[in-house]
Fold this protein.
Amino acid sequence: MEIINRRQRMASITRKLRRENKTVGFVPTMGALHEGHLSLIAEARQMSDVVIVSIFVNPMQFNEREDFKKYPRDLTADAAVLTDYQVDYIFAPEAQEIYVENFSTYVYVENLTETLEGAARPGHFRGVATIVTILFNAIRPDFAFFGQKDAQQVAVIKRLTRDLGFETEIVVLPTIREETGLAMSSRNSLLTDEEKHKASIIYQGLREAKIAFRGGERNALKLADIVRRKIETEPFARIDYVSVVDAETLAPIEKIGENAATIAVAVRFGLARLIDNIVLNKKQ
Ligand code: AMP
């Protein structure tokens, strides 16, 4: 395994791999790796000849300076884990390697980015779309792996991949959870053990809504209310939003019909802002 810091070097390695007809699987991350990331990396290892993991805490996607500063970072521990997972390259550039002097080009994905996390975190998806475009352009992966945990991010990346004509297949994998149901996240390390335990209320709320959906409830407000009321039983929790949206377009819906729907939530616990979601569709 090799750690690459320079964008040019990353691009020249992948150029050579393409000439050798090797398939490249790419997993973009911000590090502080946990089992959620590792599930993506394991799948990348299965599907591709060469696996590249990027570790870059992208300043452009943080709308709060404090959040950026306190984001957990541990490249040494991450590199040790990635060796065990037979990753071929880690791409870990410094910010100035990506955002060169007078950087002024941004990727903006319309509509999809105006709701949910986009509304709560202005500029976040512009940062995500811009960095993913830069990374895809340097690496040109055959496959890129993303977690359903960040449902809106998945929608944004699928759209930009299609719109900009990247020849990369976007592979989306399920959310990995703690035994309590709490979705794994690098941000969980900002929680005390007690907060972590209490934060499992988020998934309990989502599960209750799913049970109601299975029982025939199709009214989006009522389903959102089930989630909201459950989470509100936990005094530590401060709800940012609970929204029922179309799973593909992320447009808010009133009644769940033929198309799959996503219940997306953002909740603050202590120092962390946690997001989670569950997909409801008739096949379940
Ligand atoms: P991050 O390092 O938070 O930017 O996440 C990098 C990738 O890992 C993204 O595609 C996330 O959606 C994915 N990911 C994060 N947490 C989980 C999880 N609990 N289960 C599955 N994938 C995850």
